Amino acid sequence: CVVFMGFFLGMEKLVACLYQRPNALCRLICFPWAGGGTSQLAQWGKLFSSSIEVSSVRLPGRESRLKEPFAKDMTTVVNEITSVLLKELQEKPFAFFGHSFGSYISFAVALHLKEKYGLEPIHLFVSGAHAPHSEAFLPIKSIPIYDAEDEDILTYIQILGGTPSELLQNEDIKKRLILTFREDLRVLQTFSFEKAERNIPFSCDITCFDGSEDKPHDLEAWHDLTSGDISFYKLPGGHFYLLEPSNEIFLTKHITRCIENAGL
């Protein structure tokens, strides 16, 4: 029972699932953006049918894990997520959705699951992100996080959008957000994926979403990463296009259709 309790507490800590559906055919695991928590994507649960259970991953250093130290690198993040979720992911089909920083985490977790356990999502949904082996990803690795002033990071957060301005009026919240964003970016910079010749890591379908006003991402290169089908959708809006209710409806309907067509 101790093992089960440990497992349960690990789940509670790492994953927010607001609408539990033990009889769902598939689990959709969502991975939030840099500086983000579970509040938006965990709410998606209510937009999906009873056949899909939605959870959102919560990294250390935020929400109920505020007192825990931030993860130091991508390997630590991937290992924690995998060890906590492995049993669940072995039980029934799963799909991943990640936005921006979350896309890279979802990819890294999927890669680890495939290489180590032969497990693969039935569908990978990525949003607002370059293919991880693309040249376009490299500038992210050279943002000087250590030397960046808080003000510079705040400007970057504001350019990206997605953070209500009234939150940034509160000094404590603003400081915490800058710190969390800085630490998440640091994790992202420790991630690298070199695509080996002739090695296609996945066979699942991949769907790439992007905001039409966001700076363009190298989506084409996602083609190299799966032998499955790949599709691209541009939705109206900037980097945080997915927070618009009309886009949210499109995303959840589209994701549902893809999962239900996967022939579970």
UniProtKB/TrEMBL annotation:
<keyword id="KW-0443">Lipid metabolism</keyword>
<dbReference type="InterPro" id="IPR001031">
    <property type="entry name" value="Thioesterase"/>
</dbReference>
<keyword id="KW-0378">Hydrolase</keyword>
<keyword id="KW-0276">Fatty acid metabolism</keyword>
<dbReference type="GO" id="GO:0016297">
    <property type="term" value="F:fatty acyl-[ACP] hydrolase activity"/>
</dbReference>
<keyword id="KW-0275">Fatty acid biosynthesis</keyword>
<dbReference type="InterPro" id="IPR012223">
    <property type="entry name" value="TEII"/>
</dbReference>
<comment type="similarity">
    <text>Belongs to the thioesterase family.</text>
</comment>
<protein>
    <recommendedName>
        <fullName>S-acyl fatty acid synthase thioesterase, medium chain</fullName>
        <ecNumber>3.1.2.14</ecNumber>
    </recommendedName>
</protein>
<dbReference type="InterPro" id="IPR029058">
    <property type="entry name" value="AB_hydrolase_fold"/>
</dbReference>
<dbReference type="GO" id="GO:0051792">
    <property type="term" value="P:medium-chain fatty acid biosynthetic process"/>
</dbReference>
<feature type="domain" description="Thioesterase">
    <location>
        <begin position="27"/>
        <end position="247"/>
    </location>
</feature>
<dbReference type="Pfam" id="PF00975">
    <property type="entry name" value="Thioesterase"/>
</dbReference>
<keyword id="KW-0444">Lipid biosynthesis</keyword>
